[in-house]
Amino acid sequence: MIIPTQIQILLGISTLFYAVVVIGLLAGIRRLHYHPSQSKPHVSVIVAARNEEENIGFLLDHLVRQDYPDFEVIIVNDRSTDQSTSIVERFQQQYPFVRLINVDSVPYDMPPKKNALAQGVASSKGEILCFTDADCFPPPQWVSSIVAAFDHETGLVAGYSPYSAPLTTNGTRSQGALWLRKFIEYEEFKGATWAAGAIGMKKAWLCTGRSLAYRRVVYDELGGFERIKRSVSGDDDLFLQLVRLHTSWKIRYATNPASFVPTMPPSTFGAFLQQRVRHFSAGKFFPFSMKAFFFAFHASNALILGALAVAIVSGFSTALVWPYVAKCIIDAVLFLRAAPLFGQMKFWSSFLFMESLYVLYNSFIGPLGFMKRYEWKPSKRP
Fold first, then answer.
1. Quick one: pLDDT at residue 340?
2. Quick one: angle between helices 318-342 and 288-314, nearest 10?
3. More reliable by pLDDT, 82 or 280
4. 173 vs 120, which has greater pLDDT?
5. How many Å from the N-terminal Cα to the C-terminal Cα in the chain?
6. Could you tell me the CA-to-CA distances from 105 to 75, 110, 115, 117, 341 in Å, in that order?
7. Which terminus of the chain has fewer CB atoms gathered within 10 Å of its CB, N or C?
8. Residue by residue, what is the 3-state secondary structure of the chain?
9. Contact criterion met (CB below 8 Å) for 132 and 248
């Protein structure tokens, strides 16, 4: 099989570009080390919750057991129509540092979740603001370990939030559900690898709101969420980008395993799809240069995998196969560096397959975030 010279050149450029990006991530991960701070400022843990009666009690069980000496918990109830309010009120009676804020309406120019978080920040007293979601299970040392990552120059600390429970479909563990669970665990690990590597390179662009903390003065300096209020999503990564681009504060990634915040996976493929489309939608508000970069990266990844598919269908050709072999070697090096950091060596036997799924996922699911419309959390039917 004869491969046109132009195709060979394009594959060569794509492979080189892919390698340079991954090498950059490796370099960034190597720079993540820091000396834990001994400072113990007052902390406000803020959670926006809407119709979370199935989760909010478990979250509060974990938050009230934090080993940090000086903190408050603020649950912002965003127009819930279930029993969320009464569950939080029961915790209030037992724990004076648990506070409930009820949001009855949403301004026309501010998305619901950002509005709820802004209400929580406005009522907070902490020097450090910590954020997580209602379906998470912060370990006892979460607050203390993420606060320890702050020094006097650090304004924001991002953390890791792995999925912790098996995904089920209609109450049963089908093979499809098990593979979906494995993939979304891997996809979250890949996101953390990108987030940590980029922060290490001082090019922070991604984080998760399930384990995130920043100084109150940083929030005030940026004017809260005002600059990013057009996006339904992005109270985490878009805010992170504002810190990098418009302040002089440093950004760190928390690598202490005690800071990792497990979370429940989406219950169905449809829920997973809706969640990921919402996350991808923040990309509409990325700077043009960042959009161009990620388009080039994912296109290169897809081209390399596509060349392998053509080789399999049309007959072996070294020109079509070597880019994939090079990609596998590069991916293995990155995996071996990142997986121990995040406790994900279990994917060693399947990561090449997961990488192929990851390419397809970004190629087909990612664009939906730029087209599909949705709401943060729908109201429950009575």
1. 96
2. 120
3. 82
4. 120
5. 63
6. 16, 11, 9, 13, 42
7. C
8. CCCCHHHHHHHHHHHHHHHHHHHHHHHHHHCCCCCCCCCCCCEEEEEEECCCCCCHHHHHHHHCCCCCCCEEEEEEEECCCCCHHHHHHHHHHHCCCEEEEEECCCCCCCCHHHHHHHHHHHHCCCCEEEECCCCECCCCCHHHHHHCCCCCCEEEEECCCCECCCCCECCECCHHHHHHHHHHHHHHHHHHHHHHHHHHCCCCCCCCCCCEEEEHHHHHHCCCCHHHCCCCCCCCHHHHHHHHHHCCCEEEECCCHHHCCCECCCCCHHHHHHHHHHHHHHHHHCCHHHHHHHHHHHHHHHHHHHHHHHHHHHCCCHHHHHHHHHHHHHHHHHHHHHHHHHCCHHHCCCHHHHHHHHHHHHHHCHHHHHCCCCCCCCCCCC
9. no
* Whole-prediction pTM: 0.90
Percent of the chain with pLDDT over 90: 72
> Quick check: 373 and 287 in contact, CB under 8 A?
no
Q: What is the largest CA-CA distance in the chain?
A: 75
Q: Please determine, for residue 170, whether its predicted confidence score (pLDDT) is greater than 50.
A: no
pLDDT bin (cut points 50, 70, 90) of residue 367 is confident
Q: How far is CA 196 from CA 202, 253, 296, in A?
A: 10, 6, 21
Residue indicated by tokens 């489309």: 277
Can you give the pLDDT at residue 377?
Answer: 63
State which amino acid sits at residue 248. S
| Phi then psi dihedrals of residue 98, to 5 deg | -90, 125
Contact partners, residue 81, CB within 8 Å, separation at least 6: 51, 379, 380, 382
At 376 the pLDDT is 52
